[in-house]
Amino acid sequence: MGCLFVALHMFKIYFRVKLYFSLHLPGPTPPPPPPPSTKTIAVSDITMKLYSSRRYYALARVTVKNQDGKPVSGAVVTGTWSDLVNGTYSGKTNRQGVIQFYSPSTRYRGAFTFTVGNLSANGYVYDPDQNTETTDSISTP
After folding, report:
1. What pTM did the predictor assign?
2. By C-alpha distance, which of 68, 73, 66, 82 is closest to 117?
3. pLDDT, mean over the chain
4. Domain 40-139 is of which CATH architecture?
5. Which residues contact 117 (CB under 8 A, 6 or more apart)?
6. Contact at 8 Å (CB) between 40 and 67?
7. Contact partners, residue 103, CB within 8 Å, separation at least 6
């Protein structure tokens, strides 16, 4: 009987100690939260249109979208005209993620080429590898 009493007493002490430490000691440290995903922007489309009267000029319409395919408003787009005309221009996209660039005019025939050089927007990183296109051109007849 004495051994049984001692065994029961030791059993109660063991569970009291285990309960105490399980309530008062911190558990395993949870893993850190995952890093925030990077929000990216890229050129989704460049469409070109040619105009003529006595002189020729072109329109480049650039569309900027994020990693989810949604338009990005207020993105700053920098692009360069080359071939027939030259010049570098910048501007901000509208609510639909679109900006239009008009080329200088010329009386000569040939190709108008527009190349996007950079994009920037608050909270986003420009990922040129995600561009659908970076350069587009249109030629006079």
Report:
1. 0.76
2. 82
3. 88
4. Sandwich (2.60)
5. 78, 79, 80, 88
6. yes
7. 57, 58, 59, 60, 81, 84, 85, 87, 112, 114
